[in-house]
Amino acid sequence: MRVSREQAEKNRQGVIDTASHLFREKGFDGVGLVELMESAGLTKGGFYKQFESKEDLAALASRRSMEMAMERWIRVIARRPDAPLDAMIDLYLSPGHRADKGDGCPLVALGSDAARQGADVKESFEFGVKKHLELLGDVILGGSAEVRAELAPAVLSLLVGALTLSRMVNDDRLALTFLSAAAAQVRSITKA
C-alpha cells in the first residue's frame, strides 16, 4: 500500500524524533535499526526509503536534539524574563535534568559519541553549540557584547561539564555537589 507524501514526511519526522530520544538515551551505537524503527511504529524496510544511512539519520536526529534543547531554554527564559540566566541554570543544573537522559541535553548525552562521528553529525552539533552560545551571550547581563561573547563558552563548558560529571557517579550527594558548584561558578563569573 502506497503512503501519501504527507504521511511519508510525518513518518520521517517521527523516526527523527524517536532517534533523537533513543540516541540520547543509549548512544549512537546503542540503538539498532530494528529497535529504532519499531519504536517509531514502522518497519525496518522503510528506513532506507527515508534515509541514506544511519549516519544520515544521526545527523538529522542530532540537529533535532539541539533544536529541542534550545526550545527548552527559550521556554524557561520566557517564564522568567527578569532572570533569564538564572532560569537556564536552574533548569540545566537540576536533579531532574540529570535524570532525564533521553530528553536531556544532547551535548552531555552524545558529546563523546559525536566526537567520533563523521562531519555531518559534527556539523549538526556545531550548529547547535553556536546557537547555544548566541543565546547565552544574550542572557548574560552586564558588560559589553564582547565580554558576554567571551563568557558564553565558559558558561556552556561549566554547565555541560557539571552535568556530565553528575551523571557519571552513583553517589547522589557528589552528583548534586557538581551541579551546585557549577551553578555557583556560573553565577560568580556572570554576576547573575
TrEMBL record:
InterPro entries referenced in this protein's UniProt entry, alphabetically: Homeodomain-like_sf (IPR009057), HTH_TetR (IPR001647), Tet_transcr_reg_TetR-rel_C_sf (IPR036271)
PROSITE patterns tied to this protein: HTH_TETR_2 (PS50977)
Annotated Gene3D superfamilies: Homeodomain-like, Tetracycline Repressor, domain 2
A GO term, aspect molecular function: DNA binding
Residue spans crossing the bilayer: none
Domain of life, per lineage: Bacteria
Pfam families: TetR_N
Protein name (record): TetR/AcrR family transcriptional regulator
